[in-house]
């Protein structure tokens, strides 16, 4: 099976201020419990950025991550850049700097941390423009992204205003669990 997740922000306790729905303590454990209950050998998990805030593993969260079954692929987000690919290789089987185009179930999916339009903030406009350009150049059917946190618009963003169908797989909007390929592509059938 194929799964997607983003914005786990392990050890990033400030993330709790962004979303009042996220529980005050132990959100990392809830994420890992969910992943451990779903992932099996042979599965692939695409993490669409903002993996962890620190590498100091006080609660052995990162150690549990390493032991997750299946293949783990990272498409880097803005917070992952400070660690770099070499450091993150300890946690992922494969790492992509900005985006990845996949052909799955007859659909072309663009995976990126960034949306084509973030309605909440004006950060990273050049990256959002790049996502839009890649989406149309690669003739994609769906953008799967993260980056957009809890806001008045819900789990979606402004991608549809650019003519880009998307799914935001930020754990905040999926009860701290990974999202299956079937859930992501349900609107494309």
Which SSEs are present, and which pair or pack?
Blueprint: E1 2-5, H1 15-18, H2 27-38, E2 44-47, H3 61-66, E3 71-75, H4 84-88, E4 94-96, E5 99-104, E6 107-112, H5 125-137, E7 142-145, E8 166-168, E9 179-180, H6 181-184
Parallel strand pairs: 1-2, 2-3, 3-4, 6-7, 7-8
Antiparallel strand pairs: 1-9, 5-6
What does this protein structure show overall?
By secondary structure, this protein is an alpha/beta fold. The chain has a single domain (2-188), classed as 4-Layer Sandwich (Purple Acid Phosphatase, chain A, domain 2). 23% of the residues lie in helices and 20% in strands. The chain has 6 helices and 9 strands, in the order βααβαβαβββαβββα. The chain has a 5-stranded mixed β-sheet. The chain has a 4-stranded mixed β-sheet with strand order 5-6-7-8, with helices on one face. Helix 4 (84-88) links the parallel strand 3 and strand 4 (94-96). The chain starts with a strand and ends in a 5-residue tail after the last helix. The model has no long low-confidence stretch (mean pLDDT 89).
